């Protein structure tokens, strides 16, 4: 349980950061789900210590004796994972916002040429901005390293208004 609490604390602190975007939040939550899924199978640091203690009958100089029913570890982890999955932001919105973040851009120019255009078009339409203008500015931004034009700036600004939490 301590392993889970440690991971949830870390996630909570990341989500509460003022600069955390919706895309960041989605990545942090998915990363935590992945870590907990791995821990569900193999256990975390504290789980390993407990297993060693049970094997020796001692844990931190305290003799162990079984007195209560055990928590079903697999069920506990799965319950936490399921709860986190419900917390993931709207996948379509995150998909539309990712191309605006350079961290997700492909490294090869050939892959970058058309990357994100469908998503930028969809976001522009949702926000009532001229889609073709946004696409052209996005191309100049990603391929020619130009400053974002007016339409693309509006999309980038709007993308920062989608808050991942109401922590503040």
TrEMBL record:
Domain of life from the UniProt record: Eukaryota
Gene Ontology MF annotations: ligase activity
Keywords from the UniProt entry: Ligase
Protein name per the record: E3 SUMO-protein ligase KIAA1586
Species this protein is from: Dissostichus eleginoides
């Amino acid at each position: 349980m301590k392993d889970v609490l440690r991971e949830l604390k870390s996630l909570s602190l990341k989500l509460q950061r003022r600069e955390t975007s919706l895309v960041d939040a989605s990545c942090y939550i998915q990363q935590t789900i992945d870590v907990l899924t791995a821990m569900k199978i193999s256990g975390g640091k504290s789980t390993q210590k407990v297993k060693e203690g049970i094997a020796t009958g001692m844990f931190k100089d305290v003799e162990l004796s079984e007195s209560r029913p055990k928590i079903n570890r697999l069920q506990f982890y799965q319950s936490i994972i399921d709860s986190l999955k419900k917390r993931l932001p709207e996948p379509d919105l995150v998909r539309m916002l990712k191309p605006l973040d350079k961290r997700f851009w492909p490294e090869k120019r050939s892959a970058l040429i058309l990357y994100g255009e469908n998503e930028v078009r969809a976001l522009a339409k949702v926000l009532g901005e001229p889609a073709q203008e946004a696409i052209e500015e996005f191309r100049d931004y990603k391929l020619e390293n130009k400053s974002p034009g007016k339409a693309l700036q509006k999309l980038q600004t709007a993308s920062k208004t989608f808050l991942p939490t109401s922590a503040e």
